Amino acid sequence: MQAEVLIVGGGLGGVAAALAALRAGRSVLLTEEYDWLGGQLTSQAVPPDEHSWVERFGVTASYRALRDGIREHYRRWYPLTDRARRTTALNPGAGHVSRLCHEPRVAVAVLEAMLGPYRGSGRLRVLQPYRPVAAETDGDRVTGVTVAHRHTGERLFLTAPYVLDATETGELLPLTGTEYVTGFESRADTGEPSAPEQAQPTNMQAVSVCFAVDHVDGDHTIDKPAAYDFWRAYRPPFWGDRMLSFRSPNPRTLAISERSFTPNPDDDPWLVQADQRVSPGDGNLWTFRRIAARRNFVPGSYDSDICLVNWPMLDYFEQPVIDVPDPDAQITAARELSLSVLYWLQTEAPRADGGTGFPSLRLRGDVTGTGTAATGGDVTHSGLAQAPYIRESRRIRAEYTVVEQDLSLEIRGDKGAVSYADSVGVGMYRIDLHPSTGGDNYIDVASCPFEIPLGALIPRRVENLLPAGKNIGTTHITNGSYRLHPVEWNVGEVAGLLADFCLARRVTPRAVRYTPGLLADFQNRLADSGVELRWPDIAGY
């Protein structure tokens, strides 16, 4: 099969890239390994991590259309209260991590609606569930990618003048021989204050397999997981307690903090202030990433809130899942950790009344697209998220690599982040690194609102492969800021527009960056498409 643009990976970056290329009139092949498009927002079940100004500026117009579409979907189809329906900035879950906490299936519906006209016209062909297994190259160009069906093994050979890697782990980089980096770079290479003296390529951020629960009458306790005794006793040296507890390090201070857990606290959704400048919002784990607040809906519609579990105790950092002999075995171990967390919550977690266990917690696999809500007290183990939440990818060796000194608030101060002449977007998030496979604790550094340089999207050698997700030219450190939902979308959108621009002008991405006239024309094209290139005068956090 062939098209003008081949996008391997249907996460947020992949969908944004496809939409950009399709709106430009290009034909697109889009592949995705899992059953849902949308990656971290859907199959990984992670509510959007966004900056404090997201409702006003700092994201692309198409990302804002996605957010607006999610809210409109609730208004049109869900039994919202009148108060909730009238709210412009509706937060369906009233979660503290985001101003738009919602059920992942809603995002799937909106993304599919955005892509729908192009599927109908035949200019977009989506191949699911397919994953890349091989690639062919000719010198510095990728000539084709082979993908295999996840279940049947059926193989397809796909070709296009431009190939975009929007996979969660940069799967095309080793397959195509594109030079890349993993894990920590050395301080000698990057000059970053938070980097180690020596490079640590196998030291990568934890992955997490998320899941959703509600709290309803009955005993919904799952079978005891096979690895439960191991995880129950597991005590990381920096954790301050057993990992299966409500005690863990505060990411910003590293002081040991105790979080609460109160299912269905009957709080007022209108009093939730989801602002990372004020608080990370993780004091009560139930409301931290809540994706359905029952008081936003007509009484009787929801028997319980729905809580999305993506908490510190879910982080799997025993082994990396990239460039290891059997990554599926590590993901299976991460799933076993998640089931152990659920079983611990149901049977042993301390309650405020002095008792232990919350057997009325029910795994909501129907919410994550992996199972059915229990009706008679039985819950299957298929109810975890479809895909693991991958925080860190392989990263291209790029024409420009973003380093800590470019955006650290402590280093940059009131100067703000470095402003790049080749800016192709903006983003904002603290440098937020979870515990890693090398035994490191959190690294959490205040950040300035930053720009996305085009140089970070251009491999040093390969000419027609573009990164379209977390695989751009960041370091292990700065990946912590550039890995979140709106930035991944911005990167993907730019990659799709860049492929179209290069096809139309018959130039290479490298030429666009290094030719002032071409760069100015491309940046004007981005601005016309609703991609913000600069921040107003605001301070970081």
UniProtKB/TrEMBL annotation:
It comes from the Bacteria. Coiled coil: none annotated. It holds the Pfam family FAD_oxidored. GO terms for biological process: NAD+ biosynthetic process. InterPro entries: FAD/NAD-bd_sf, NadB. One of its GO terms (molecular function) is L-aspartate oxidase activity. PANTHER family: L-ASPARTATE OXIDASE, SLL0471 PROTEIN. This is FAD-dependent oxidoreductase. The lineage of its organism: Bacteria, Bacillati, Actinomycetota, Actinomycetes, Micromonosporales.
